Amino acid sequence: MSCLMTPRVSFQTIGCRLNQAETAAMTAGFLAAGYVATPSDLPCDVAVVHGCAITRKAERDSARAARAARRTSPDALIVVAGCPAEVMGDALRGECPADLIVGQAGKYALPALLHRLHPDRFPAPPSAAASDPLPAFDTKRALVKVQDGCDFGCAYCIVPAARGAPRSRPLADVTAELHRLAEQGFREVVLTGANLGCYAHGDDRLLDVIRAAESVPSLERIRLSSIETTTVERAVIDHMATSTKLCRFLHLPLQSGDDGILKAMGRRYTATEYAATVTYAAARVSDIGIGTDIITGFPGEDDAAFEATLHLVESLPLSNLHVFPYSRRAGTRAADLPGQVPVAIRKERVRRLLAVGDAQRVAFARRFAGRRVAVLVERVMPDGTAYGWTGEYLPAEIHQAGGPVNRVVTLAVDSINGDQVAGRAVER
Length: 428
Fold this sequence. Notes:
Layout: E1 8-13, H1 17-32, E2 36-37, E3 46-51, H2 56-72, E4 77-82, H3 83-88, E5 100-102, H4 110-117, E6 142-148, H5 159-163, E7 167-168, H6 171-183, E8 188-193, E9 200-201, E10 204-205, H7 206-214, E11 221-224, H8 233-240, E12 249-251, H9 259-265, H10 271-284, E13 289-296, H11 303-315, E14 320-325, H12 343-366, E15 372-380, E16 386-390, E17 395-399, E18 408-417, E19 420-426
Parallel strand pairs: 1-2, 1-3, 3-4, 4-5, 6-8, 8-11, 12-13, 13-14, 17-19
Antiparallel strand pairs: 6-7, 9-10, 15-16, 15-18, 16-17, 18-19
Helix pairs in contact: 6-7, 8-10, 11-12
């Protein structure tokens, strides 16, 4: 490749919203250095796999993405960045064709590193780092990383090893980014972090970040990623009850409904305390959507412990269940615990919980029949039908909406299809 040609960079992001937000920042750095971003299924000169290591499967997915990038772009420089590099290091080279393996700190300096290694192929970045993260392909909401790291030390979790100690961005920096995103035309932002509820910078806390986002006039919706129970969830619920911009959806990971398993996991609440928080949210915020995460088959989870989880889920007003079979993760305390549950039993428990969750989600959607909801338009089809998401995190279909994407419209719901609400856009 001639040094006069504009190099092409592609990104594949494995894992959470935090990874997606960081990919946006990495993309901005490459564009500032003179690269052109291209989708990952097209040939490129640099292929970055922004990987995940939360489970062994996520690591395998990251390695698989690197192998796919090599097939798509045989002559490209393949980079695996982020959590897998911190956890696996050079052992990754035995699983994928990575030319470079870069950890958390180094991933933002990739353009400079590539130039130092191959000055005849890759341009030198500008002296000032790019500060405007860009959205991932095909997204109409912006992800804003406000916090990183975690020291909760849950027995099954590799995040402390992959991301380090908690640290938060200055509120002034977050606020400046929010204003830039609004100027770029975004109407919805998602605040995210490795442990979002632990945001703390000086005297500022998560509610201060939320209020800063609400103060940006053209931002119409603020959405929160997952918040741990025992952090600031009740203060957030109280604020949500009166806010006109904060989406009425809260994701509160449960992981297990059995106190013995919660203790073994290193979680900081009991099943009763968790239930009290969800009940409080449902009473305080009208029609709030509440999501959760559950791990089945954690070491020591017998039939009684699983049934306790199933019963708790059935008793709570949940609208969105993410259920995962326990994944034995080297480097975590749980990997060496006795009572490892057979994989087939873990998967069967996932199936049972998901069946309950699906029914709860459909029942939640039906509550909105004949009512009006706000929807962020994300796709408009040639016939004018539009699709998006409600503030309560339900998929929506808008008949003959017309008009551009990336706007918040009021939907008069006249039908429910599974968990999807549908109807026509009306005047607010």
